[in-house]
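ok trying this again, last paste got cut off
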Amino acid sequence: MSEAGKSCQSCHGPPLNLSAAAVHYPRYSDGRVINLEQRINRCRNEYLKTTGSAYESPELLALTRLLSHLAKGRSVEVTVDGPAAASFERGKQFFYQRRGQLNLSCANCHEQHIGPCHCTIGTSNTLQLEEENVRNVSAHLPIAAVLLVFSLVSSGNIACAASVKTVVPPSNRGSLPTEKNLNRHVEFMARKDRLIKTGGTQLVFIGDSITDGWRTDPQREIFEDYFGRYRPYNIGISGDETQHVLWRVEHGELDGITPKVVVLMIGTNNIGNNNKMSADETAQGITTLVTAIRHKLPASKILLLGILPRGNRPDDPFRAQINQTNAMISKLDDGRYVQFLDIGARFLESDGSLSGTIMPDYLHPNIRGYEIWAEAIESTVDALQK
């Protein structure tokens, strides 16, 4: 509520009334091009009789994010002719102008090689095109809207140094909860509810495709033979990395159950998928996940399995990363609630090679590989159940 006794809702009503607002920005207004943030601040100044919010401030980011979210699926409607034409041309010139030590323009990445954004325009009031926004620009926005944004920079409406600097991706990607497969999450939540109604579960398996594979034939029978008496709840999803599992844990997949044991094996996709995380970043993600599971299930014991070996040869680059990661996460073993167990050696030949008769693609176990896994952890799972 402002000093004038008004809020945004006083004029606009519920947020859904503004579902089309964001699609019209940037736009020409009162002699210049303004973006959505500037329009919000003008509204605050003129109608709420209060000062506008600073760029990148939590309040302004929250409002622009809300309006952008409400506009998802709508066509962008920006005007680049008439009074906006001059600004459009300035933006176009800035977009195609080469600069910096690499002598690159914005167009070299965002037009010639469209994809995720890895750059930030260095500013005193930083204009940052986030990866999601640029992906949306690439797929949905007319280039006119992009060039109008750059006209704001080139005209000084947003102060900008004439340089583009590389932004290093965050080093904790595996610890940032990320939604990946909502349909499977919904299925797991329904499965969990059925288990709760019929007596609960004493054993949870959490992981990626290797864990996910337990539910398919022919290894499903092995799973039931070794662990069926504990009414197991398997929430493995193919392709998952630590951040994906973390999102699922934080969104209820472990709520309402009280298993005695949780078997967790995760991390091979952090290393091997497109993110190509380091051993340090992967271990950090696993650590964050273990902490989240402990928070949700404080009375449960966690059997933390080392990442299984992958690659046929012992000198495969993945092997070194897996060994480094396993060495780091082994320190999570606290002798009470978390027990670390590395069963990788059981899958290897005497010379350290990984046989195709156990993992045909040198990553995913076949029925023989799953039997090795079950045999390797059976006694530990039984002991932790007591």
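PB: full thing came through this time. Residues 114-141, 159-166 have pLDDT under 50 and may be disordered.
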